[in-house]
């Protein structure tokens, strides 16, 4: 059973930075897709960024140029560097991975942005 452990959330002022990490354990093969979604109360989860097995990236338009997704295959870990955070970025961030065609989700980490 694949388990994901997220870390790095917290509170920052507008313009600040955070780095989220998500480590996958228990995988019998290397995760293919890895990425991040976010969700605010009353809304659906929305894709923030993802990476496929070929390291092709995809970003939500509103975070392009501010967020950067990366992965460390040796650690089965995906990162999300978030710079110039704005109040509209505040949400619970969830990581996901696909392994062997199955999708797994983390428990979520809160990101708060306010002055």
Describe the protein in words.
The protein is mostly beta strands and 115 residues long. It is built from no helices and 11 strands. The protein has strands at residues 3-7, 10-12, 18-25, 34-39, 46-51, 57-59, 67-72, 77-82, 91-99, 102-105, 109-113.
Give me a quick take on this structure.
This protein has 115 residues and is mostly beta strands. It contains no helices and 11 strands.
Structural descriptors:
7-stranded mixed β-sheet; 4-stranded antiparallel β-sheet; 115 residues; 11 strands; mainly beta
**Could you say which overall geometry the principal axes of the C-alpha atoms support?**
globular
Could you tell me the radius of gyration in angstroms? 13 Å
Query: Which structural class fits the helix and strand makeup?
Result: mainly beta
Amount of beta strand:
over 45%
* Major sheet characteristics: 7 strands, mixed
Helix content: under 10%
Number of strands: 11
Blueprint (SSEs and pairs):
Layout: E1 3-7, E2 10-12, E3 18-25, E4 34-39, E5 46-51, E6 57-59, E7 67-72, E8 77-82, E9 91-99, E10 102-105, E11 109-113
Parallel strand pairs: 2-11
Antiparallel strand pairs: 1-3, 3-8, 4-5, 4-9, 5-6, 7-8, 9-10, 9-11
């Amino acid at each position: 059973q694949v388990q994901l452990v997220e870390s790095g959330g917290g509170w920052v002022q507008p313009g600040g930075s955070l780095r989220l990490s998500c480590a996958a354990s228990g995988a019998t093969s290397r995760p293919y897709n890895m990425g991040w979604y976010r969700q605010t109360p009353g809304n659906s989860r929305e894709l923030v960024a993802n990476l496929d097995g070929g390291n092709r990236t995809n970003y939500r338009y509103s975070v392009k140029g501010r967020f950067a997704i990366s992965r460390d295959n040796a650690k089965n870990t995906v990162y999300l560097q978030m710079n110039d955070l704005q109040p509209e970025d505040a949400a619970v961030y969830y990581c996901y991975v696909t392994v062997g065609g199955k999708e797994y989700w983390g428990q979520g980490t809160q990101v708060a942005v306010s002055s």
